[in-house]
Amino acid sequence: MWHILKYLARRPRITEPVPQPQGVACHGAHPVQGEILAILGRALAIRQVDAGSCNGCELEINALNNPYYNIEGLGIRFVASPRHADMLLVTGPVSRHMEVALRRTYDATPAPKLVVAVGDCGCTGGFFGESYASCGRVANVIPVDVTVTGCPPTPADILGGILAAVQARSR
Amino acid sequence: MQFPGVDCHFAPIATPLPIHLAHVDATQWSALARAVAEARGHLVSLWGSDERARTGRYTVSAAYATADGLLWAKLGLDAEHPAYPDISRDFVPAIRLQRAAHDLVGIEAEGAADCRPWLRHGAWPADYFPLRGDHTGQERFDAQPDAYPFVFVDGDGVHEIPVGPVHAGTIEPGHFRFSVVGEKVLRLEQRLGYTHKGIERRFIGMEVAQGARLAGRVSGDSSVAYAWAYAMAAESLAGVRVPPRAAWLRALLLERERVANHLGDLGALGNDAAFGFALAQFSRLREDWLRTNQACFGHRLLMDRVCPGGIADDLDAARCATLRDQARHMAREVAELRNIYEEHAGLQDRFVTTGRVTPALAARLGLCGLAGRASGQTADLRADFPCPPYDAVPVLACSHLNGDVAARVAMRFEECFASFKLMEALLAALPDGPIHVPLATAPDGAGAGWIEGWRGQVFVALETDAAGRIARCHCHDPSWQNWPVLEHAIIGNIVPDFPLINKSFNLSYSGQDL
Known about the structure:
- The structure holds two protein chains of two kinds.
- Chain A contains six helices and five strands; from the N terminus they run H-H-E-H-E-E-H-E-H-E-H.
- By secondary structure, chain A is of the alpha/beta class.
- Chain A has a single domain, classed as Rossmann fold.
- In chain A, strands 2-1-3-4-5 form a five-stranded parallel sheet, sandwiched between helices.
- In chain A, helix 3 (56-63) links the parallel strand 1 (44-50) and strand 2.
- The termini of chain A are far apart.
- Chain B folds into three domains: 11-110, NADH:ubiquinone oxidoreductase Nqo5 subunit (Beta Polymerase, domain 2, 2-Layer Sandwich), CATH 3.30.460; 202-240 and 442-476, no CATH class; 244-306 and 316-438, Cytochrome-c3 Hydrogenase, chain B.
- Chain B contains 17 helices and 15 strands.
- At the A-B interface, helix 1, strand 1, helix 3 and helix 4 of A face helix 4, helix 8 and helix 9 of B.
């Protein structure tokens, strides 16, 4: 325990300011947290679904949980079940083998629900497109509110997309 | 060259590592499998192709790792009844590879015990084979009935826990069927293939240069390893060697990819044993590492940096200095965290003896890569067949004998330190010169690439058609070998330790589903 405390005491605080949501102007000190509370009345719970990605997007979504981004401080957290979720964060071209699982996950998420498609493959089908094995973009399978491009998008871009989806719902 | 005990001639492919190709008949095919198994070689990969348009036949290929390098044996198959002798009795990893080859090409392993579909679920019918030349890969089918016969475990108090394909964390999809008594696992059966998105079909007809981008997206966490293996295959086709500076920078990228993944895994392993501090600190270090990737190479995960013929961007002196400083700084940080790991009794209690794979079992099942080295399987291409620049810098191959989660954690720490030293050596003696050579198109050729990625050996076999476009590109992930071993590692452990054991292997779903 002594080692842990010593280690922590010698390191600075690294959390960074919140990035601007995509295409939306932000005002005030912590507008994001306020908006999440105003819309949902509680923290934003996200269920991530890999519907066939190469796992590059998953690495960057995991990076969003590191101390630089401090998303729990904004009231955003990842949950283990779609039944606890307000938002689905979906990656990948949707493989044909994940099509039913993705639909069921969407159906299991209580309304009102938001869907953010992450990565070029999720936005357009990307390199893999549509084929015998791939349904292409996420919007071909379930309704999508916001898309985040990039291969893979950076954690800041993903956070921007999450915030944009929340703000779009409030207007 | 000849392989002892097999009467066929292997011709070298122009790669920096020794890779040889031979066309064999059915007798030689079986004899080679037997001889390689007796010489304690390993099966690297097995795949099928439809070459009816060119030669009137299907083919099946097997790649073996031996003391003399990689042997690629290719067997022509009858166009009406494409079948080949089963080799899964000699090599356990062949079971799933043979099932996948049947799903994609429709070639049959004669005498194989397990003939259930592997990559085909319900997305296409049983008589459709996406890699056959008479299909475009653009066909669409309604969902087919999908009743996969899992092995049923019966007994007093035995019950099943089905998990997935959508898992409870931010990880890839797959299905695990646990048969348990109380909380003790009697048996785990995996069902993968959920992220199958038709990568091998997508390769067909592409320009060789264009395929590099796709190869770098077979498994996002191993992008450099795949891109390098693919580039090596393309370069061997064209008969060129990359300039020394390009080879050295590729190794630098590969080692940075290795460290990035180890940092992520070390944090996640601590977290799976309820040590949240570890996740916070290692994910902070990983973020620092990725941001430097962005600053020095232009991509956080180093995608599209390695391309056929060399690398995409050069590195100036200032960025070399940044990389060197970061490697030194990171070595100190990781050393401090290793002390904390080693002195944390609660953490060690979860790690030690959990998910044990003995060296004997690892050898029998063909466990490879990082997990293999944690179970006494010392193979590491960087040390065994050092190609430039690994022949000019000291490669420290690490291994352990315990084969438990603790050993796989220790391996990651040691490989990080070895990589920091390697990076220092690479940066200190980085040769000057060009970073790219042009590649001529090579019609009707066969090339191969073989690279020690962070997870294990990544292998790419690349063949071109008469116009020099891709006729077949097979990408092999070491996860094929290691997924079946995970089924053994969990036996006798408790269900709550599965996430920890699974993470200690950290296998790719996308890399094996293709």
